[in-house]
Write a structure and sequence with these properties.
Number of domains: 2
Number of helices: 10
Number of strands: 9
Order of helices and strands: EHEEEEEEEEHHHHHHHHH
Radius of gyration: 19 Å
Helix content: 40-55%
Structural class: alpha/beta
Distance between the termini: 52 Å
Low-confidence stretches: 309-314
Largest sheet: 9 strands, mixed
Amino acid sequence: MKMHALSIGSAVQEFIKANSLCGAKVHSVFHRTVNLVLPGGRIVACSCGCVPQHPANITTSFACGDAAFHDYVRLNALVVVERQALRVGSLEIDLQGAATYVPTDWKAIRLCTSMDWAAHLPACVDEASCKLGSIGLGVLLPALRTSLPSFDGTSAHAELLLRLVWQQLGLLTDALRQNESMLPSARRLIGLGPGLTPAGDDLLAGVLASMFAVSAAGRQLSPALDKLRLGLYEESHGLTTDLSREMLYYASKGQLTAVAEDVLSCMLQGKPLADSPSVSAMARYGATSGADQFVGLVVGLRLIQQGCRWGWEQ
């Protein structure tokens, strides 16, 4: 089956230039995405066009309807690169003429003032809750509208995953308040939940991306937050899946997906999220990944709000 690439992420372009796609194998296959593991261990995704763009993703003209990638691709199948085409199983992807997706340049984002930014966050949570509040960790959004929890060993959440996440968020908040290392509490969220990108990892990806964005835009993080931002990816070694580690790697550089980055950009600039197509796209991303990442963005911004020195712009 032949198709063409619509967009190639900037990271994939670098892999192509280095000829490192040669020798790749199929890592995992889903209805709308096939993941390829490169000889060096990095992961590249090929998806249908309805999947959000990402630096390590090739979006293709593969139909988002009844056909599925697992009808054409098998696990461990070798990837062959011939001229400007990528062969994966019985698929041939023409790479010529594709646009290049480049992640958000957070240094170019003009942050609103700390007072306006903090005041805008509850409205963002309210607007996004309409679409994300019943998906995965999105159930926690109403409780995160104005503050983060302190540790409560008797959390009232009936579902075990929600209870564990809520408790760890309380420990994160308490560690920040006491200016202690937040890595031990964050470490307990790594790999928490089912799936190839567990909910705890999706949340942490949102936390990392928000911290990188605010830091890159010129606001100084508190020492505890900075250590969390710089150390979390390394902490994930051996604790979660390859796909989650790859997600955390890019998140530590402020890169999630095009839709998640757009939502974060709006939140930082005081723009409304009501009727945002990016919020709707996050609701459709993965089983719960989009909603879980949004919760992570809110948690990250709440942590920054409490621990960042907002008195000046650098």
